[in-house]
Amino acid sequence: MSLKEKCDTKYVLVAPDGGWGYMICIAGTIILISFSGFVSSFGLIYNDFMAGIGFGSTEITFLNGITAVSMAFGGFITSPLQKIMSMRKLALVGVLTYNLGIILVLFVKSAIPFYTCVGVIQGTSFGLVFNLTYAMINEYFVEKRLLAYSIVKTTMAVFAMFAPQLVKYAQSEYGFKGTILMVSAVSLQSLIAVALMQPVTWHMKKVEKQPLTEETKVLLVDDKDNESGPIVKITDLSTTNTTSTDINETSTKIGGTDRKSSWLVQILKSSFDVTLLKSFLLSNVAWGIAISILGDTTFLTFIPAALYSYGWNKDNVALALSLVGFGDLAGRGCFIICSKWLLNVGSQDLFIAGLLVSVAARVSILCFSNVTVSLVFMVVYGIGRCFLALFLPMVICEVAGTPKFTAGMGLVMVLMGCVNISCGPIFGAIRDYTQSYDITFWILAATLFAFSISWTIELVYKRRQRSNTENKA
What we know:
CATH superfamily of the largest domain: MFS general substrate transporter like domains
Keywords: Membrane, Transmembrane, Transmembrane helix
Order of helices and strands: HEHHHHHHHHEHEEHHHHHHHHHH
Helix content: over 70%
Radius of gyration: 25 Å
Pfam family, one: MFS_1
Protein name: Monocarboxylate transporter
Oligomer: single chain
Organism: Loxostege sticticalis (Beet webworm moth)
CATH class of the largest domain: Mainly Alpha
Transmembrane segments: 20-40, 60-78, 90-107, 113-134, 146-167, 179-197, 285-311, 317-338, 350-371, 377-396, 408-427, 439-461
Shape: globular
CATH architecture of the largest domain: Up-down Bundle
Strand content: under 5%
């Protein structure tokens, strides 16, 4: 079939926005429950173990940094690995490796093996599967993307709300090793999710397309040797004198790839996208995401020990973490209901709003010593976390676009890793030097607030600049 005949076809394949996409939502839910359902309970699970091997606040934040760097590495290599492996095979490797990291903790008796199992092995696997899960949801959903994310995140939040109570029960009944085996058993359920992760090309939906005009068809070159798509004839778009050699070179850049380049060179070029590097690293988008995740990770890691230092008992600490999950769940449930009305609201706006809510909740927890009041603000903090978790992939997709989502997510995760490994231990050192969780939390809150204001200013400036450009046009 010639190129012009292809242009005359009546239908085009688009994302299903439903159908098997809902099975992908189930797969995403299982994976997120298995991999991140116990994140808020990390301090509850490992608090006594880390104290036994001599971990202080600096060592804990250094562990967070190693985990973040490993996650960044796993997320960054996702896009290149997709050139040589299918998405399902990559997910299977990630699930099995993650479970291996959990099981090996049972044999750990010192700091370095603990860094390796939790930080390196689990972190790398988490980054790989995390990127793949969001990429697949983005492929299956376009118009209903917010609804899909809300369903997945809400179901995960239900589990996260009860996870601290489950951990407390497992510790009292089976001890530390029994708890680790329980976490491992939950993580293995991701094998079911891998089986559900079918390629989106199997389930594309046919929709009627608008026919091209004759003028548009004239501009298309019917190049049978070119497998990557139609080529636009440069001579028909410009009156500039151009030689046939220049046209061939330009056509190669637009419609084809350099076939003399090795597959390794092509993978490296696809990994380091110059446009993405400029748009992310020179803006507050990636930095704001990285700093907000650092703040959330540090707070969740420190808060169990901080509450113990305030005189709280184990039951109250477990209840506080459960209420964080309840707030997260309540927020995500609201997004399911309100998803239709939020289509015109920018993902960056909602992410910044969630960051400010979470900062306000943390400050309020510090300002009130009453246990009941603090528990209420734990719920508010969970609502703020809901914004961060739900809109993080949507912000990246909004800036990078669906085709470059895995590369964009990889770059953001690299930055998150660098920020965590460089800045995370600083907050741990502040805690060890001052012997005060309050001072550490205040400095952390001030940092997050400053970045949220900077991000807001940049967002307003870019929108005004875009509006002025459109008005001039």
